[in-house]
Amino acid sequence: MAFARQTDVDAVASQSEVKRLLDLDTTPWYKRPNLRTLYFTLIPAVLGCEMTSGYDGSILNGLQAVGPWLTCTYTTRGYHDRVRRSLTMIADFNTPTGAILGAMNAAFEPYFGLLTTPYTHPTHRPWLATLVLTQDIMQSIGAVLALPIVPYVNDRVGRKHSITIGSAIIVVGVILQTASMNLAMFIVARIVLGLGIPFCIGGASQLIAELTFPRHSAIINGLFNESWYAGAIIAAGVTLGTFSRPDNWSWRIPSLLQMLPSLLQLTFIWFVPESPRWLVSRDRSDEAFDILVKHHAEGDRNSPLVHAEFAEIQHTVRAELEFSKRRWVELLQTPGNRKRTFIAACVGLFSQWSGNGLVSYYLAKVLSTVGITNKRTQQQINLSLSCWNLITGVSGAFLTKVFRRRTQYLMAFIGMTIVFACWTGASADYANTKNKNAAGAVVGMIFVYYWAYTLMHPLTTSVRLQSEDMSYWDDC
């Protein structure tokens, strides 16, 4: 216990020294050749993780305005025959019973009602929302399955290999999704995609936090989160360009292009150094020190800042390796960790329950409720919203230097509450009066809402527990 207290004191002293030396260092990043090269390499190697997630989140929005995807054209026969073809997948599971049958019923039970549902225009089909929700749930199931594995892989094989594993899984999922010949194959592909994304995000978030220059860490982590919208822009643009095709390639092309960020990661990750903290934890301190010297001191092995950083890493890792035997239990062992875990759970849950799901997955349906039913208009609004979100998200990332992190959270949640209340009121007004001004207000409120939503992603955990909490947060 005395060793733990002394190590904590040493770590705090090292952190204070790092902060003091950072205040004395005024050289901008773009005047540091090695650091500049590192950052330009990180963009394709790491930011693609959230881009893949954003592409995946946006593609379902776009596909809801794609005719062949809506009508499930896996056969040229009539509507009811197409539904029956989708349901015949059940016979391929050798007459499932018990828990397996129950799980399949939970996923596919809504589709049995299609057999007695009269054919209507695709936008009026009552099962469309359930179809999208089921496919979104399947992706989430994959993410939940990865939750207990990601931290161990991340800390066992390193941040870079975690990104590589996740990217490879995503490529497999994209191939399955693009080649889907029936609903079952598409849903399995969604599960595989959900399995790969947490490996990428878990490894990338820690690699950024542990490899970047200390002064830039918060900003780059914010940019990492907001790169989600860069992927969403690409997905929205691609679906806008292909949705008018009359064949299945109107949705297969957007699906196929989803693998591009992962292919970039698999190519460029080998040019990025490993996390110094992970190297120290694996008794590879010399390599860690060399990386810090090269990228944080431009080759100056006598740099006081690098020595202070290295000492802080050693003190922290030594204490954590000494006392961290049961990793997940650590999340609840101390009052501080319990508080951080509670915050991570709340932020993860609240960020998904704050109303963003309405637009993230059901934008076409939301727009239809206020009279905007033209498919091209819906695609254009989807693309415009993704561009707007990227602009506001990047701006929010730089606000970490202006506002405290808790202040940003409060600004975000208070803003979302106010805007969502106005949004709900305008929607109710349109439903009662068909007032076009109310419909315009709904569209405007969607954009303002996301301006508030993009403010709220700073880290709250200790370095050692980031792997667990980032996985936990992502899967909430």
From TrEMBL:
Residue ranges the record marks as coiled coil: none
Keyword check for Transmembrane helix: yes
Residue stretches making up the Major facilitator superfamily (MFS) profile domain: 42-476
Membrane topology: Multi-pass membrane protein
GO cellular component: membrane
Gene Ontology molecular-function annotations: carbohydrate:proton symporter activity
Family designation: Belongs to the major facilitator superfamily. Sugar transporter (TC 2.A.1.1) family.
Name of the molecule in the record: Major facilitator superfamily (MFS) profile domain-containing protein
Protein's organism: Friedmanniomyces endolithicus
